[in-house]
Amino acid sequence: xxxxxxxxxxxxxxxxxxxxxxxxxxxxxxxxxxxxxxxxxxxxxxxxxxxxxxxxxxxxxxxxxxxxxxxxxxxxxxxxxxxxxxxxxxxxxxxxxxxxxxxxxxxxxxxxxxxxxxxxxxxxxxxxxxxxxxxxxxxxxxxxxxxxxxxxxxxxxxxxxxxxxxxxxxxxxxxxxxxxxxxxxxxxxxxxxxxxxxxxxxxxxxxxxxxxxxxxxxxxxxxxxxxxxxxxxxxxxxxxxxxxxxxxxxxxxxxxxxxxxxxxxxxxxxxxxxxxxxxxxxxxxxxxxxxxxxxx
Length: 296
Fold this sequence. Notes:
Elements lengths: L7 H7 L25 E4 L2 E4 L11 E9 L2 E5 L5 E16 L5 E4 L10 E9 L2 E10 H14 L8 H11 L4 E10 L9 H15 L5 E6 L7 H21 L12 E2 L12 H7 L1 E9 L6
Parallel strand pairs: 5-8, 10-11
Antiparallel strand pairs: 1-2, 3-4, 3-7, 4-5, 5-6, 7-8, 9-12, 10-12
């Protein structure tokens, strides 16, 4: 049941998230740092103070990790500006997870992968900015981990996967929509029907024949239920579709944009009728090609 969607503005906004895959890899907690940690962290000839509490507060930086080398990382913001930040042994690195992002897990510096969206609190030091806290999403971390594992190469080596990540982030509003397939769900459910499974693999096969194609998966609900319930349900539907596309249809994780839940936004039909609600309980699988690479 393929329907070609013309809602390019909505899709461009959704595509603005960093690329991602479903939450199949859990961010692992690490032990609380030892209270007898060294007083300084050494980067070549530079010694960074481990005690950051005495340093003045610096700017908050929100963007994508665009480069990592040793204990330095470069964070590029949406407007293209890049800020280099030191990551100390005492930098608090946390991933938000769970409903409403309430749960938090402590992470190591190894979790700061290229392409990962982060919010960085900094302190000012003579040698530059030091990250006092780095906050990120568990789902986005799972994305970066999946891509790193799937390509079997490190992002710090500036692999093709890294370049693809940066390209997608830089051109998030520059996609052509080559087709949209909608698969539908029962009320309050996120399991896939036999028909939906067949249509998803047909869509993946179609996308495989399209040069430089990426998939953007967006989940929706009808108007039944409150916003929080519908938001969570739409995310579950999108994640279920992504899992199936990758595990059963052979779609590569690094060719997937972030699965997104849009609750009851952007309905296909009138939510005042049962037939309309049935059309709105859907996941849209969009085949996208960046305008900058189309035809290459």
